[in-house]
């Protein structure tokens, strides 16, 4: 799957409900890592045209945010955490959270 590829849009309400339920329960809908999408997720100059694209982008941003929180917790739990790496992870998490807030304000 390329960075520009998006999952197919569900045509039935049941499929949409299942997808959102899976997100709430913490299941990963897409088994690939999120790092290849980092540039697409941080581009603030382009907003999705339709609600489905916006929903997809928000779900990906929330998944990326959750992954960053786990990585921060793992790094902080180490006996001697690397302060620079921990700071970089926290700054990235904050940038993702700011992007989420900007998209949610635009809805």
UniProtKB/TrEMBL annotation:
Pfam families: DUF465 (PF04325). InterPro entries: DUF465, DUF465_sf. It comes from the Bacteria. This is DUF465 domain-containing protein. It comes from Neoroseomonas eburnea.
């Amino acid at each position: 799957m390329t960075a520009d590829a998006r999952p197919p849009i569900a045509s039935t309400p049941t499929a949409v409900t299942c997808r959102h339920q899976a997100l709430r329960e913490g299941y990963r809908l897409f088994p690939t890592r999120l790092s290849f999408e980092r540039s697409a997720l941080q581009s603030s100059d382009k907003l999705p045209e339709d609600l489905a694209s916006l929903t997809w982008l928000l779900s990906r941003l929330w998944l990326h945010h959750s992954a960053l929180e786990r990585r921060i917790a793992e790094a902080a739990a180490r006996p001697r955490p690397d302060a620079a790496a921990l700071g970089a992870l926290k700054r990235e998490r904050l940038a993702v959270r700011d992007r989420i807030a900007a998209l949610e304000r635009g809805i």
